[in-house]
Amino acid sequence: MSRWWRRATRFRSDQVAMSLADAREHMVATQIEARGLRDPELLRAFRTVPRELFVESEVPYGDQALPIDSGQTISQPYVVAFMTDAARPRGEAGWRGATALEIGTGSGYQAAILAELGAEVTSVERHERLHRAAREALLQAGYPNVRLIAGDGSRGFPENAPYDAVLVTAAGPSVPLPLLEQLSSEGGRLVMPVGAREHQWLTLVVRTGDDYASKPLEPVVFVPLIGEQGYGPGE
How far is it, in rounded angstroms, from Cα 2 to Cα 8? Predict the structure, then answer.
């Protein structure tokens, strides 16, 4: 291979990297910060995590949900940011050192954002192919410490409970009781889309002792939460 060819190849690779970095910055500025989410750590995480590793698309930073394997989707960046901000533990340290449970690993992007913020992340995915692909993507992106579980996320993962935050990336008819029980009793926060398949509200639940305060946040449409505590496969 000639020195000219090596230089040209390196130049093209640098140009791709630059365009992706620019797209990432534009996404943060126009889709997240401009819509009112301005926590510096949150914005830093979205500027850092390479979304292109978690979705096969020519527009990985576009303002829309995108299809991934197994008939699932990756949410648009703003929705990921909104859920992350809503679930943020309210202590002084925020996400740093907090325990987080994600239900529905999908491509692994949400788990990467949480890990970049400093959370100790457990993520459950029922689709084996997604589970394996997310593991590879998270390793490639530099987040090897996310604990990935293949199984029924509607039951949570009690082995690592309690969790300071639970994020559910699929919609159920109600919040599964196991997920509520696995929340920290000292201000644990759960964010989940709740409702019918065609019409849901992103809902925040805050636990204080044995009390659970629920608040609707935004109308959304997510894929259904399939499992023992969610929708059955035929519903």
Answer: 10
Q: What phi, psi does 205 have (nearest 5°)?
A: -120, 130
pLDDT in tens, 187-221: 999 999 999 878 899 999 999 999 999 999 999 99
Q: Rounded to whole angstroms, how far apart are CA atoms 196 and 123?
A: 24
Question: What is the distance between the alpha carbons of residues 51 and 56, in angstroms, rounded to a whole number?
Answer: 10
Count the Cβ atoms, other than its own, within 10 Å of residue 24. 20
Contact 222, 201 (CB under 8 A): no
Q: Which parts of the chain fold into alpha helices (H)?
A: 3-27, 40-48, 77-87, 109-116, 128-141, 177-181
Q: State the catalytic residues.
A: 75
Q: Model confidence over 40-50: pLDDT tens digits?
A: 999 999 999 99
The DSSP letter of residue 106 is T
**Side-chain half-sphere CA neighbours of 118 within 13 A:** 11
